[in-house]
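Handout, section B. The chain below has 249 residues.
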Amino acid sequence: MNSNQSRNLITDLEALVATTATQFALEGSPREVAILANAEYNLQRNGEDWGVDYYDLYFQVPSWLYSQIADDIDKYETRILDKARELLKPYPNDDLARVFISPILSAGEDWRKKANNWVEGKGVNNQGRVRSDNIASRKEDGLLFRSENEVLLYKALKSLGVPFAPLPVFIKGGEKYRRIEPDFVIVKNGVVLVVEVDGDTVHHETPAEAHERMTMLAHEGVHIERNCSTRGKNGAINRESLLNRLISS
């Protein structure tokens, strides 16, 4: 098999980003996968040295994602750079010098109104932002979710008319400060139920880890439902059986 001598980093940039995301997924790094999967990107020539062209790779991610990774942005830039450079061995004349991650610049028609609403405390939302090890990368009705299964359960609960909260933040102060974010909290007839949904992201939490995370609520009498299956035949939600399973009154 003859190699394609015309291949270079510029023409294969999409494949480089996709393969880098795959490698991070295989090692179980959801934050890096979320950055690569949701980013707009471009390559800019940095310079040349001894016949090697060096490039800077720029990633622009949605603001909701950037806000979840901003504190560790240098770490993610370094990790993505190192991983991508591992894949450039077939390109002896090309190399990456730096990786930069920044928010996508956008200005909607009503951005000023939204900004003023935020100043006044309208629409403030810390939902879906606690667990940086498993980024909430899906949106539905302005809310964040971590998997398609969570979105399906959200739609089912909304159609049933029961009070519930998706990815709410719970804080316990004192000597041992804790901050957790259950997938769903459902309230009906005086019963408080936490539902943890099997996800479809690359992060997989063990039952022991999930139990430890929910201990502070379980000790207060909250019912915990783990590994909730929400799909019926042909992937549809069975709303009646869902309510019967999750909320006994």
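Note. The chain is about 35% helix and 25% strand. Compare this with the example in section A.
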